[in-house]
Every structure is written in structure tokens, then in C-alpha cells.
Write a structure and sequence with these properties.
Layout lengths: L4 H5 L2 H14 L3 E5 L4 E3 L7 E7 L2 E8 L4 H42 L4 H15 L4 E7 L6 E7 L10 H13 L3 E3 L20 E8 L4 E9 L7 H44 L4 H16 L3 E8 L6 E3 L12 H10 L5 E3 L4 E9 L8 E4 H4 L1 H7 L4 E3 L8 H9 L4 E8 L5 E8 L8 H106 L5 H10 L1 H33 L7 E3 L1 H11 L1 H4 L9 E5 L6 E3 L1 H25 L10 E9 L18 E8 L6 H5 L18 H12 L3 E6 L5 E8 L23 E5 L4
Helix pairs in contact: 2-3, 3-4, 3-6, 4-6, 6-7, 6-12, 7-12, 8-10, 12-14, 14-15, 15-17, 17-19
Length: 809
């Protein structure tokens, strides 16, 4: 206790009270302090000693007669009152100091928006009220179970939460939620002092940073002096910790809200942007969302459009070293400040292409020259953020006048550079009032700008990929078309070789058959004449010699001469019919093969059709278990047609053979358009678009394209629409494996369409038969246009219609 009897007696009012009491008792006294020194009076051996007690502690004695005992009691009471006064004064002073400290720190913390700044304020105020050589504010590290120092001072600041005694103290304080003091620390260098241990600190005090919900960290301070920390120091540090914990928790919560809002904004914007990879849609979405989120009057996006030529490079900041500049460029340089290695030209401009604005504001979409916007261009091109809370205070007069002209009060522009090097910017502007831009808004706009740059890159990459895909698709289609053409050409070459070989074979066989048949046919005339002459002689013998000799009569009877004379002419007649038939077949084979007619020439289409029918005659006849096929050939008196006769014969062969196949399949399955009637193959030829003629048999007017039409129809099984669409595709067939190659109709289509400039169509429905229509122009070469129409088509036989019903032989 620092309170003594001597100090108490030194107070004038206390001394007067004691002296008055002594006078009233009329008894001498002596006052002795706790150390035995006499303060007042003289000691007498007969005096008794009465203690003066304050809060249980003897601070001195009153010596005298027995009645001075009352003086000892009075002094004890006065001393106790003085001690209580001092304690109360100290408490009031402490409260005042604490309140002053809390007020100061609260005022500073309220003005702070950063957690580290709050921590620095708390440590600064702690140093003012508590003696400390080191200190630290520690918070729980996110996602970890250890404390991380966010602000510290002194040489041992980084070690409070890591090593030795200090770490134990901090951990215990955080776990218990109470303040801790450790004084008179003795460091064992061998055991405790590590590489980062704070040697020399003799006192450490730690209090937790505690909110209502949990402990969020701790404040620890230490001192190298031997003076230890007291409960008053702990109380003061706890008060500071309480203020700091509330502020830090509030700021942490606010930061989380801001970050959540920022992430939500970015996610929302990114989601809406990624819903479309079309650049104009991305930019429109971006400016609309930014204006809505930041609640500004206008948000716009612009591209930088550099000049294509005559670009000047300002390589030096020394005006004397630059080439002469136009006035507009000098103005631009004057207002844009220090520019090094920056390429600018008076014809450069910024193009505003998207904006979202208040309905009352006029649109700013358009082009703006770099000289018109002042230093704005150079700053943005150097990737600097342009921030103007109040455009009237901008130092760049050109930029200031530009914004005022556009009715802009506050501007915030963030530059954007794409992966391909294109420059642009996104800007927010206020017109209704001045708007101070916060750091959070700038960071948010920067993040949105980065997101927008990524989205633009993605859109450009997407457009490039679409272009590449389109090019690849076109190449693939071209390759596929080339492959199909190669396959068709190969198939046609193979088929042509087959048909050429077959034609040569058929022509050779026809030639070899034709010679002996002609020999037989030609000699049959003579044989017939000779036979008739011999029969005449025999008749004369019978007339003039009715009764021959017995031997001759027996021979005549044995040989049945009457029968021979009657049957021999018939035999010769049938032999002539047989040779005629063989000659007709040989002629049909020669017409079909056409080996001597590979060039385009005028030919009779009817001859080709009839030769084809002659070759396929056996398939029209009745077969075992199958009815004969009725053939109806309606000839329309066709003129000569300029064509490749052999190739057209191949077309007729394919179409007629397919029609017979369809009829046979219909008869086998019982299906068909007229399953109860005779299967019928109908062939019809007719003229199309022939002009009328005058008295000289010349056309009255020129016809655009006189054509002939050949229709080959059957009442067989027909086909579905899907089959009909693919009918002329190479290698497509509906026949069983081994019965069709899928090339017949494809080659027929090429012959008619590509080689004869005609058309080949098919009309069919399931179970309704099929009808193939061929249309061919009469003239292929333009040189034929000057020849009289009927001269070009002379020599055609008269039209002849017939119905040929082949019975089963």
C-alpha cells in the first residue's frame, strides 16, 4: 500500500482534527508510523500503543494514556476515508480514460472501411494506454484452424501465435474466451528459443476478439521491461478488443455481402452473356445489366477504330525532336499528357455501338474522333481507368468540354483489350447529378470489363469456329461430291466397258450368225424353186403314167409320195419363217449394240425401243406358273432425234427390264394396281411443244424446245416415297443381293440428263405401279438450228399403234 500515516498527518484538515481532539482530551500523545519513526510528540515509557488500522493493515500507532485509544480509532477512520477517496478517484479517472479511449477509437473505426485499418487503429490506441514494445491483431484464417496476424508492431509481433509461451497464452485465451496475463517470463534458451522466438519479452497480455456468436481472433501485446501488466491494463485492452471485434465482424460481414453481391452480379452477367455467343447480343446485355446494377443514367460500349494509313509514332517527349504535327494532333498531344510509343492519328476515332440509357437522355451512339475527346483516348489506350466524379473539375479542358457537351456530370470508363488486340471501353455516366465513384464500384466495373473481354473473345472464337466449320463443311461437301462423282464415273466407266464389251460380243455373235443364216435364207429361195419344179415333174409323171411298174408303185407307197408332195412346201415355208425370225433377232442385236454409232447422230427412237423389246421378248411370254405380260406400244410418230443411240438403248433396256421385274414381283406376291387383271407394260411415245406449220410445212413460229416424250409404265408393285427419292442414287437398289447393282437407273439418269440435256422422272405409289417419263430435246447441237425442221426429220416411218399380246408358247 502506498498510503502512509505521515502523508495522512501531512494533510492540514487531518492534522487540525487530531490536534483538536488531543486538546479536548487534555492528554499528551505521540504518533509513530509503520516503520517506528515518531511523527509528532514525545515517547514516554508509561505510554500505551494503540494501532491505526486501514483495511486490516497497521499503518502506525498512537502512544499515550488509555483515553487516547479514541484518537487511534478516529485516525483509523480518517485514513480509511482517504483511501476510499483515492480509490474512487482512481476509478473515476480510469473510467474517464477508458471512455475517452473508447470514444476516440470508435470515432476512428467508424470512419474506416478496411479491417487492417481497424486493427492498426486498435494497436495504436493500445500503445497509448498500455506500455508495449510488440503487439499483434490476429484473426482466424478462412478455412483453417490457426490464427493469422493481420496487423502488428515491434520486433516480436509475428511470433505471438506461433511459438513458445506466447503461443500457449494466445491459444488459451482464445479457447477460454477470457483475457490472460503472464508476467516475469523467463526464457530457456536451450528449450524455448527457436529461430523466430521473441527473446527478451518479460510480460505478455492477450484478450480474445469476441462477438456475440463466437471468437474471431485475439489481440496480444508484450513488453521487454520488467514492469508487469495489471488488471487495469487487461480491462483496458479488453475494452479495445470489444470495440475492435464488433467493427471487424461488421466489416467482415459487409465485405462478404459485397463479395457475394459482386459474385452474384458477375455470375448473372456471365450467365446472360453466355446464353448468346453473338457479339451484338453480348454487348447489349452487358450495358443493360451494368446500368441496372450500378443504377446510373447511362452505360455504353465503344470500340477504338485506328486509322488504316498515315499513322504517326510519337517516339519522343521532346517537341523539338518530333516532325511537324497538324493543329488537331498538337491539340490532342497537349491535352493527353505524356505519351511515349503511342500511335495516334487525327483520323482515329471511337465508335459507340451499344448503350443503355434513361429514356429522357439523347443517344450517344456514333463516331467520335480522338481529337474531340482529348486525353480520354490516350488514357484508355494505355489501359488506364478514367474516373471523373465531377467532370467540371477535370484538368483536361478538351475532355471537360466534350463531357459537358454530352450532358455528362460524372464519368467512369474502364478499358478493355481482347485476345486479338482490339481496344474498347465500357463506361458509366451520370447526367442528373454528380456521382462520386466508390472503389467497390470501380473494382466491380473492372471485373465486369474483364468478364466482358472474355465473353467478346469467346464470341470471336465462336464466330471463327463457325467460319472454320462452314469452310470445313463446304470442303467436306466438295470432297463428298467429288467422291460421289468419282464413284459415279467409275461405275459408269465399268458399266460402259461392260456394255462396250457386251455390244462387241453381241455384234460379233450377230455377225457370225448372220453369215450362215443369210446363206441358208438365200438358198431357201432356190430350194423352194427347185422343189416346186420337181413336184411339177412328179405331177406330170402321175398324170401321164398313172400305172407305174410294180417296183415303182411299191416305192411310191412305201415313201408316201403324196404326203411328201403335200408337206415339203410347208416344210420349206416354215424354214423360211425360221430364218426370217433369226434375221430379225440378229438385226435387233445389231441395233441394240450400236457399236458403229458411238457418236451423236440423228436416230429413230422407235427402232431402239423395238430392238430392246425383241431382245426381252422371252420375258414377256408366259412362264411356268406365270401369266404372259401384255405389251401396249403406242407410237406417236416421232421425228428423228439427235442422240447417242447406243446409250439410249441402254436406258430403254434398264427401264423395261425393271418394269418386267416389278410385274413379276407383283404377280408373285399378288399385289399390284390390277392384281386381278393381266399384267401390262405400256410404252407410249409423243411429241411435246412442236410448232404448227404453214402451207410449205415450215413452222409458223419458233418453238423454245421441241421435245419427244417416252413413257414406260407398268401396273406392278410400285414404290414408297422414300424409295422414289433415292431411285437415281448410285448403288441404291431394293433388289436382293446378287440381283441388282444399283447402277442401272443412276447411269440411265446420267445418260438422259447430263448427256442429252433431257429429264427423267418417276411417278409411283405403293401397289399403284410405276411410270417413268423421259423427255429429250430433238436437237442437241446449235448448228442444227438453221436447217428446216422437217428436212431435219425426214424419213420417219408412219405412225403405227399396236397391241401385242404374247401368249405362252
Amino acid at each position: 500500500m502506498t498510503f502512509t500515516l505521515k502523508k495522512l498527518y501531512g494533510k492540514k484538515e487531518i492534522r487540525s482534527a487530531i490536534d483538536g481532539f488531543v486538546t479536548a482530551l487534555d492528554s499528551p500523545i505521540a504518533l509513530i508510523d509503520g516503520g517506528g519513526a515518531v511523527i509528532v510528540g514525545d515517547l514516554n515509557a508509561n505510554f500505551s500503543k494503540y494501532p491505526i488500522v486501514v483495511n486490516g493493515e497497521v499503518i502506525g500507532w498512537v502512544c499515550g494514556e488509555e483515553k487516547v485509544c479514541a484518537i487511534a480509532s478516529m485516525i483509523s477512520c480518517l485514513a480509511t476515508q482517504e483511501v476510499e477517496k483515492k480509490a474512487l478517484a482512481r476509478e473515476v479517472l480510469g473510467k474517464y480514460r477508458e471512455l475517452t479511449l473508447l470514444y476516440n477509437i470508435s470515432e476512428k473505426i467508424i470512419g474506416s472501411l478496411d479491417i487492417k485499418e481497424v486493427a492498426a487503429i486498435v494497436l495504436e490506441e493500445a500503445q497509448r494506454g498500455i506500455k508495449a514494445s510488440s503487439g499483434a491483431v490476429m484473426l482466424w484464417e478462412e478455412g483453417s484452424d490457426r490464427l493469422e496476424s493481420i496487423e502488428a508492431f515491434g520486433p516480436a509481433a509475428d511470433c505471438f501465435s506461433q511459438l513458445g509461451v506466447t503461443a500457449t497464452l494466445v491459444n488459451r485465451s482464445v479457447e477460454t474466451g477470457r483475457g490472460e496475463i503472464v508476467n516475469d517470463i523467463v526464457w530457456d534458451v536451450a528449450l524455448d528459443a527457436g529461430q523466430n522466438e521473441p527473446p527478451g519479452i518479460t510480460s505478455v497480455m492477450c484478450v480474445p476478439l469476441k462477438t456475440k456468436e463466437k471468437v474471431i481472433g485475439a489481440i496480444a501485446i508484450g513488453n521487454i521491461d520488467s514492469l508487469g501488466y495489471t488488471a487495469e491494463d487487461l480491462k483496458l485492452l479488453s475494452a479495445l478488443a470489444s470495440q475492435a471485434a464488433s467493427a471487424i465482424a461488421a466489416l467482415a460481414h459487409e465485405n462478404k455481402l459485397k463479395e457475394s453481391r459482386r459474385q452474384a452480379i458477375l455470375f448473372r452477367l456471365a450467365t446472360q452473356i453466355r446464353q448468346s455467343l453473338e457479339l451484338s447480343s453480348i454487348l447489349e446485355t452487358a450495358v443493360t445489366e451494368i446500368r441496372s446494377l450500378l443504377r446510373v443514367d447511362r452505360c455504353l460500349f465503344a470500340w477504338y477504330k485506328p486509322a488504316k494509313s498515315n499513322i504517326k509514332s510519337w517516339e519522343s517527349t521532346d517537341p523539338d525532336e518530333r516532325p511537324p504535327e497538324p493543329c488537331a494532333e498538337r491539340s490532342l498531344r497537349h491535352h493527353s499528357g505524356h505519351l511515349t510509343h503511342l500511335l495516334l492519328h487525327t483520323s482515329d476515332y471511337w465508335q459507340v455501338i451499344n448503350e443503355a440509357k434513361h429514356p429522357a437522355l439523347r443517344s450517344l451512339i456514333g463516331d467520335y474522333a480522338t481529337s474531340e475527346v482529348g486525353g480520354l483516348a490516350s488514357k484508355l489506350l494505355q489501359m488506364e481507368i478514367v474516373r471523373g466524379d465531377d467532370v467540371t473539375k477535370l484538368t483536361d479542358s478538351v475532355m471537360r468540354q466534350f463531357f459537358l457537351k454530352q450532358d455528362v456530370s460524372s464519368i467512369l470508363a474502364v478499358p478493355i483489350e481482347t485476345r486479338l488486340g482490339k481496344m474498347g471501353f465500357v463506361a458509366c455516366a451520370n447526367s442528373s447529378k454528380i456521382r462520386p465513384w466508390s472503389d467497390d464500384e470501380i473494382e466491380l466495373l473492372e471485373a465486369v470489363g474483364n468478364q466482358l473481354a472474355i465473353a467478346i473473345d469467346q464470341a470471336e472464337l465462336y464466330q471463327q469456329s463457325l467460319h472454320s466449320a462452314e469452310v470445313a463443311r463446304e470442303k467436306a461437301e466438295e470432297l463428298e461430291k467429288t467422291l460421289v462423282e468419282l464413284q459415279q464415273t467409275e461405275a459408269q466407266l465399268v458399266q460402259s466397258e461392260k456394255m462396250s464389251g457386251l455390244g462387241q460380243l453381241v455384234a460379233g455373235i450377230a455377225h457370225e450368225i448372220n453369215n450362215p443364216v443369210n446363206f441358208i435364207h438365200g438358198n431357201l429361195v432356190h430350194v423352194n424353186n427347185y422343189t416346186l419344179e420337181l413336184l411339177t415333174v412328179l405331177n406330170l409323171y402321175q398324170k401321164y403314167y398313172p400305172e407305174p411298174v410294180a417296183e415303182l408303185e411299191a416305192a411310191i407307197e412305201e415313201m408316201d409320195v403324196e404326203f411328201l408332195m403335200d408337206d415339203l412346201p410347208k416344210l420349206l415355208s416354215s424354214m423360211k419363217l425360221g430364218t426370217d425370225r433369226i434375221r430379225a433377232i440378229v438385226q435387233s442385236l445389231r441395233l441394240f449394240s450400236r457399236v458403229d454409232e458411238s457418236d451423236m447422230k440423228r436416230a429413230n427412237i422407235r427402232d431402239g425401243i423395238e430392238s430392246t423389246l425383241m431382245i426381252l421378248q422371252h420375258r414377256l411370254n408366259a412362264q411356268p406358273g406365270r401369266l404372259p405380260i401384255q405389251l401396249i406400244f403406242e407410237d406417236g410418230d416421232l421425228p428423228l432425234v439427235e442422240c447417242y443411240p447406243g446409250q439410249l438403248n441402254q436406258v430403254f433396256m434398264n427401264l423395261i427390264a425393271n418394269a418386267i421385274d416389278a410385274l413379276e414381283e407383283a404377280m408373285a406376291s399378288g399385289n399390284g394396281r390390277e392384281s386381278q387383271t393381266l399384267p401390262t407394260l405400256r410404252i407410249r411415245t409423243e411429241r411435246v411443244d412442236f410448232p404448227p406449220v404453214d402451207s410449205d410445212e415450215e413452222p409458223l413460229k419458233n418453238s423454245a424446245s421441241p421435245r419427244v416424250r417416252i413413257t414406260i409404265a407398268d401396273n406392278g408393285i410400285g414404290m414408297t416415297e422414300s424409295v422414289r427419292r433415292r431411285l437415281f442414287d448410285p448403288f441404291f437398289t431394293t433388289k436382293a443381293v446378287g440381283k441388282g447393282t444399283g447402277l442401272g437407273l443412276s447411269i440411265s439418269y446420267q445418260i438422259v440428263v447430263e448427256k442429252h440435256r433431257g429429264t427423267l422422272e418417276c411417278i409411283s405409289e405403293p401397289n399403284q405401279g410405276a411410270e417413268f417419263i423421259i423427255e429429250l430435246p430433238i436437237f442437241q447441237s446449235p448448228s442444227q438450228g438453221n436447217v428446216s425442221f422437217f428436212n431435219r426429220n425426214s424419213g420417219v416411218r408412219e405412225a403405227k399403234s399396236r397391241v401385242h399380246h404374247v401368249q405362252n408358247c
